[in-house]
Amino acid sequence: MKRIAPAHRVRGILKVPPDKSITHRALILSSIAKSESVLYNLLECDDTLRTFEILNKLSVKFKGDFSRLEVFPPTEFSTPFSPLFCGNSGTTARIMMGVLASVKGFYVLYGDESLSRRPMKRVVKPLKKMGATMLGRNSDENLPVAIRGTKLNGCFHKLEVASAQVKSSLILAGLRAEGKTIVEEPFKSRDHTERLLSHMGAKLSVKENMIEVEPSEIEGFNLEAPGDFSSAAYFIVMAVAHPDAEIRIEGVGLNETRTGLLELLKRMGADVEWEVTESQPEPVGQITARSSTLSGIEVGGEIIPKVIDELPLLALLGAVANGTTVVRDAEELRKKESDRIASIVENMRRLGLEIEERRDGFIVKGPQRIQGGIVSSRGDHRIAMTFSLAGILSEEGVGITDAECIRISFPNYFDLLKGVTK
Ligand code: S3P
């Protein structure tokens, strides 16, 4: 069990690890390009290693390491003898489905226990509409999924949920389909795939929540991944929630489809500033956050996809803020690495904090005293990191069982945390 002691002071200037979403995409897109790529500052963690190993098995050649990686795409993927392991990574499984359904060959994707419970029909069904030959467990709902790659037909998809994984999968399938593919989301989700593909020369246009892609070849590129905003989020929230704190994070991704948390923190009255210093192909900059007096807010609607991975932090912010914090329209949280609504509610209660569970979110009244206790990560990296902050803000410390799962996205998290807390 990992024990997190309360901190008296929080100070520091830091860089967070590279962006996980961009790393997956950089690896996958460079592997289907016409020419070589050089990728800098990629995130090396459990999830991205699964993508890397799968591409390796498909005969993509790599030279170097994740700080500077040369990628040599093959003219055709080779059909591997064995199934392809996606581990805990939904991004790997879902995006690879769109890629593999549209190239020649036979592939089977499978995952760990948590990933095997997560919904896959949201990708398999629209890919089948394009003519894909696929078969998944539980009537296509779950992994394993078998794919016989074939020529697909472009078509119009209206997504029921805003999901960057589903959207990316369909865009990549559309890249090699016959005719135009259109994907419309109810709200805009993270747009890294669109940005990187445009940068690589794909015929792609974006109008609000609608993306049109035409069959096109893409060129290799040089790309440096920025720091991951979702990793930075833990340090930002720690700073605004702690009574004696100032944190500065440099070189972090500030793509607006990811930074909904900053908007919400402003609404809560937080002392947080940010500045974009570079913008191509992804906005990058710095964030400063300091101790703040926070007020509760209501969160729902179109901001949800822009803050989806940071929503567990809202429970903690709600507990330290004055007034009521309501999170709604977030039922998708139940379909992540764990049922995040259930994980948040269980762990808040284990720490003696009051929270009301809703089908699509939760309600927290503050301010509440965080005394301490023992929580369970439920094998979910974002739950473990969220409740580590409860430890920092607590009176007596918090123990986290199965905290090792943090390596799924943020292998050096506890080292960085230690470096900025006293
Ligand atoms: C991701 C998209 C989101 C997010 C996940 C990463 C991506 O999932 O929660 O952590 O890289 O595309 P959904 O597409 O299921 O919303």
In short:
The protein is of the alpha/beta class and 422 residues long. The protein has 14 helices and 23 strands. 33% of the residues lie in helices and 26% in strands.
Low-confidence stretches: none
Bound molecules: shikimate-3-phosphate
CATH fold type of the largest domain: UDP-n-acetylglucosamine1-carboxyvinyl-transferase, Chain
Describe the global form: globular
Kindly report the name of the CATH homologous superfamily of the largest domain: Enolpyruvate transferase domain
Largest sheet: 4 strands, mixed
Number of helices: 14
Q: Strands of the biggest beta sheet: in what spatial order?
A: 2-15-17-16
- From the N-terminal CA to the C-terminal CA, the straight-line distance is 21 Å
Question: Which characteristics define this entry?
Answer:
globular, 422 residues, UDP-n-acetylglucosamine1-carboxyvinyl-transferase, Chain, binds shikimate-3-phosphate, alpha/beta
Written description of the protein model:
The protein is of the alpha/beta class and 422 residues long. Helices cover 33% and strands 26% of the residues. The chain has 14 helices and 23 strands. A hairpin with a 5-residue loop joins strand 16 and strand 17 (284-290). Helix 3 (90-101) packs parallel to helix 7. The longest helix has 13 residues, at 229-241. The two termini are 21 Å apart. The model has no long low-confidence stretch (mean pLDDT 98). Shikimate-3-phosphate (S3P) is lined by residues 21, 90-91, 163-165, 168, 189-190, 308-309.
